[in-house]
């Protein structure tokens, strides 16, 4: 049995498989965080003591336990590694602290931080007790304030007065929470003393006062020294000594304030993360994750003798401990356990109450996150412990004071601690790690798709553009079953042995089996494609590529694609990816210019050879210069006058325009480039976009928008039918009145624009025309398919769909971005008329140029690889309130308008040339899919390798999301391509 | 004859390369505070002047181009003026292209212009020295298989080297290393210079290597 598959269909199938792969990868890369409850709903009543069994005795202790400590000073020293305090450095440079640790009233632990060991997520972990997931950070980029239930918020709600000095990340995370604060910026890494002085200078004043309950100090100097000089720098010692003196000052001051009757104070010292041997952080090496955690209070027992083995606790444990210490409810999302020794001075009843509160909170969190929570070991243990706690209370309330009570209390305590441990470990498994198995499965699918596409290049770009797929060759079916079996075995082994939660394992069996069958099918097709290539290469076939030689444009396209893919490994190149694309399309334009000149010279040479007066000098002129692109126009211009153009196929004035066209495009690109400064390094530079959007320049913006809309009409209308021309004109008018209604632009007769509305009516008016035009276009397309009319109907239909999309993007684009749309249309027109058609580029080249320009326009419209530049306001155009599906659709459309419009233009361009190359659309679709697959596949491997990189959150993850969404959109585009191609193939068979 | 000419080419090219190296080390002796990175504009001027003086001298001494005819003084002057105009035009064109590539239009005009002067020195001036202000000859040289002597082959290679060097020199600019040489236009001009020097050294070797395949058409 044989199946004929067109190359477009193959590409679409591959892209759909790739979309599945990337979805799996993204799901594995961004594990959904433990469901976080907004803090408004977090005001649940604290759990009462467990009820003692049997009737009669009732415990009426339902209120929150009172605070253990009167005041808490929390000193966070950035990048404080455990050996800076507990190791030889600590002994040498922090004498006071060492003395307190060894002989004083303190408890010391090693707190383990979870990667990424970067300050902001670590502060979140310390204060909420949860482990922030990657996706959470990406989603919250626009609103830096911490919305989850957290210690600071609870403290403020309980009326505690909080003072903060230090890193201004805190001020951004907890706005309006502090009664007094002074934030220092952490960006000047070479500043070692000033940052810390800015914190310390407040200390004397604050320590004298009595009007605060919680004092937070965040010292950055040590981190800065680490970044610049590393942990073994001679600067570390003095910095540690400085910190030691500060701790001494605080401790002595706290001790002096303590009276006989009041509660004791607590001093907490910790680091948010450590540093590696080179001084950086972000990864998961031991030096980076191990930080010291010190509790110093007069409430503790005095230590005697040097340190023994230090206990390892989690960083998240601090939030619960401090909450209990301050008499606050434990944060709802905390996965931490109480560090019991800290409250060890209280009575047994209170200690058990604390543990019960902690366990209750953890088990509630587990209930919210796992459906099968009842089977969880920790939950079962907690229920048992709760029961024995009830028994203990019964005995206690009966006034039993015997040995039995003491023994039972010890047993309950032990049961609680075990339960807490297993509860928090099963909770933290959900977020702590990358889900490597799902990532691997996704990567395998994507790599297989890429390989398959690469191997089928020669076949797909041949003139038939068809594949013959053997559906059941015996060898491959055997291989297929073997692979399926093997993958299933691997799946079972991985899923039964994996400790962590895995998305791919939690999928239903049938889905997983389907994915595995897909992998096997892809593998078999790759093998068969490779086999065919080997077979063909044995035949003495001339390689068409080698014989024809590569033109400069080919070399540039290849080098540009490879260079761009390689540049994705560097974070700065991702941040400044727009520069790569601008650079590439500029070079492309110059190469095209050279190609054009060569073309004209070739024609000229033919001309001259036809004529009789050929000077000897001209003999050598075969092709124009290689790199003297600059001199060519001048040179050719001087000769053009002399040339008689009888045999030329571009006539006089057209020829001039043709030669000038690359320069026009270059100038357009340069103008667009200064419209929106994007990226990171030069984003602050002034640009036209900001100038136009400032309120003083409203009239200029209005004029520009009006001109742009007129230009859009002029450029689009020429290939539309009369009805859609009128619809287009009305739609563009509607866009202007929409922008006037929401106050972006003004009408000339309108002087004061006080009445700003949401412009719902105007926007919907435009939507009607958009739908109308797209509908007309679709109708034409269907007509051309069903009645098999001539191809002009079809190309008109396509163009109408295209112009409908242009109208939609004109509505959604901000008014200062309308020139982007104009230049997009202008460049497309110029390119089609003067470059692609006359130079007879093949489909692959045209497709890749379209792809490049699409990418460049993605950045021209002001996008970048950061989440912050997504224009969310586009999702609200014409909508009364937030509706999820239309808003997401509109936002995605606006963001990817550049690549999308270029892709649809490619389709128009290729299908209008069906006469020249009947398989053009299929080739185009294939090349487009290939161009998308290469960067995605390589990027996914790079990201997997760099997953502990310092910039993984800020740079690589947003880019990964952009790439993922782009794949989905490309898959949709390719589906559309294939539908068009199918129409065509049917018609060809008729 | 060929061997001797090749040796002359090698000597001339080595001399040019050495002169560029000297522009780095000699001026600090006379000017305090001169360095390639610190006072880049001054170095650009020195390098351009030095390379152009050397090229013109070499051209006058070695007379590699057969086209130079014994003309009257006025025709020589007109040729010289034409050369100057061509050189200036090429500077402007390079400047325009660099701005199109994204260099700031209003700020740092001096830097951009001096960089374009340097590029013109490496490319246009060499063409002018060898071929004179004769556009047709330029087109012939830069078309495929258009070179008619080893000097023209060398010209092709050095021109390509300097332009490609300048092109590649733009790559490190977006990196966030905060190095002094990432400032515009230092990396590009250094790239162009290295490309030119590489071209100077590679050209004789390449010609020597391919001397069997190279058959120059007589005019």
Describe this structure in words.
The complex is a heterodimer of chains A (990) and B (219). The longest helix of chain A is centred in the C-terminal third of the chain and has 38 residues, at 952-989. Chain A has 39 helices and 10 strands. Chain A has 990 residues and is mainly alpha-helical. The two termini of chain A are 24 Å apart. Chain A has an 8-stranded mixed β-sheet with strand order 5-4-6-2-7-8-3-9, with helices on both faces. Chain A has a two-stranded antiparallel sheet with strand order 1-10. In chain B, helix 1 (2-25) runs antiparallel to helix 3. Chain B is globular, with a radius of gyration of 18 Å. Chain A binds chain B through residues 570-573, 575-576, 579, 582-583, 586-587, 590, 601, 616-618, 620-628, 630-632, 634-635, 638, 666-667, 669-670, 673-674, 679, 681, and chain B through 89-90, 93-94, 97, 99-102, 105, 123-124, 127, 135-146, 148, 156, 159-160, 163-164, 167, 170, 173-176, 217, 219.
Mean pLDDT of chain A, nearest integer?
Answer: 82
Overall average pLDDT of chain B:
87
Beta-strand residue percentage of chain A: 5-15%
Number of strands of chain B: 0
| Low-confidence residue ranges of chain A | 541-547, 610-649
The biggest beta sheet of chain A is recorded as:
8 strands, mixed
First and last CA, distance of chain B: 18 Å
How many β-strand runs of chain A? 10
Count of helices of chain A? 39
Helix content of chain A: 55-70%
